[in-house]
Design goal:
Elements: E1 4-9, H1 15-28, E2 29-37, H2 46-58, E3 66-70, E4 74-77, H3 79-92, E5 97-101, E6 104-108, E7 111-113, H4 116-123, E8 133-134, E9 139-141
Parallel strand pairs: 1-2, 3-6, 7-9
Antiparallel strand pairs: 2-4, 3-4, 5-6, 8-9
Length: 143
């Protein structure tokens, strides 16, 4: 089959551009292909988060991608393949956490903690830390 096996969305970071990238990725993948979305929770690029939420809210089941893993990047694939990837990931990494995200199971290796102070820093023009602080509970903090 012709198409792309791995499509990494890390482009313009604005909502419309990211949404266009996601739509292009969904149409370009081979069966079982994977899309990685970068900067989903990066406070500097809220357009990426907006695009992902718009895409997942509007995508039809036949053409849509289903999220299956979040590691700081969001991994998506066709719905039938998402369950196959989840099973394989859990066999190799049984400590992955299971969460619900847009009505499907999302595996994650981390929790993200964002405080009001992080938003204040963003609006004041300061970037969040490059290396987030890891708390004793293995929660990533943007302090």
């Amino acid at each position: 089959a012709t198409g792309i096996r791995l499509f990494h969305v890390d482009g313009a970071h604005y909502a419309e551009a990211s949404l266009s990238d996601l739509s292009l990725a969904a149409c370009s993948l081979v069966p079982g292909g994977v899309v990685l979305v970068d900067d989903l929770h990066n406070l500097r690029w809220p357009g990426v988060q907006e695009a992902v939420h718009r895409y997942l809210s509007d995508a039809s089941d036949e053409q849509g991608l289903e999220p299956f893993l979040f590691t700081g990047r969001l991994f998506l694939t066709a719905p039938g393949y998402a369950s196959i990837y989840r099973r394989a990931l859990l066999e190799g990494q049984p400590l992955l956490r299971r969460k619900r995200f847009y009505g499907v199971e999302l595996l994650t290796s981390q929790d993200v903690s964002i405080s009001i102070a992080d938003f204040e820093q963003l609006f004041l023009g300061r970037r969040p830390r490059v290396h987030p602080k890891i708390s004793s509970s293995n929660t990533i903090e943007m302090a």
